[in-house]
Amino acid sequence: MRNGAQDRGPAASGPDQDAARGFTAALRAQAQDYTGKRKADAARVVSDVGDAIRGTGASFDGLPQLKAFFDQAALGVDELAADIGRRSFSEMYDEVQAAARRRPALTAAAAMLAGFALYRLINAPGIRPVPRSRALVPVDVLPTPDI
C-alpha cells in the first residue's frame, strides 16, 4: 500500500508554485527592508548616545583627564554606530554568537544581569506605604487637649 508521499511525482512547477515563490520573495524583501530600517534606527540611537556623552564631557573643561575620558567613550560609541550601519544583521549575529562561545561564563553572567534588570523593570514597585508604627506625625496635627 502506497502512502501519499510516495504517490507524488517530481515537484511540479505550476501556478501554485510560482505564487508561493513570489509570496516568499516578497516576504523576504519586506523582512530585509524592515531589518534595514531598524538597523539604521539603532545606528542613529547609538550615535545620539555618543553625542550625549560628548556633550556631557564638554562640561568638564577644567578637568582635562575627565574630559578626555568622555571624549574616548564618545569616540568608541560613534565607532559602534558606524559598525552597526556598515555590517549586515547576519554578520552582527555571527559575531555575537562567536563572542558568546568564546566566553560562556561572561555570557551567562550578562544574561542573568539582563534578566534581573528586566525583572526589576517589570516589577517596579510603586510608592510603598509607610507602616503606621514608623510614620512621623507633624506636631501641629496632633490634637490639643481641651483643658
String of helices and strands: HHHHH
Poorly predicted sequence stretches spanning 5 or more consecutive residues = none
Mean of residue pLDDT values: 81
Structure summary, number of beta strands? 0
End-to-end distance: 107 Å
SS summary, helix count? 5
Which strand-content bin applies to the residues?
A: under 5%
Rg (CA only): 30 Å
Query: What gross morphology would you assign?
Result: extended
Structure explained in plain terms:
- There is one protein chain.
- This protein is an all-alpha fold.
- It is 71% helix and 0% strand.
- It is built from five helices and no strands.
- It has helices at 4-7, 15-58, 64-86, 89-102, 104-122.
- It starts with a helix and ends in a 25-residue tail after the last helix.
- The model has no long low-confidence stretch (mean pLDDT 81).
List keywords for this structure.
147 residues; mainly alpha
Can you summarize this structure?
With 147 residues, the chain is mainly α.
Give the SSE layout.
Elements (H helix, E strand, L loop, with lengths): L3 H4 L7 H44 L5 H23 L2 H14 L1 H19 L25
Helix pairs in contact: 2-3
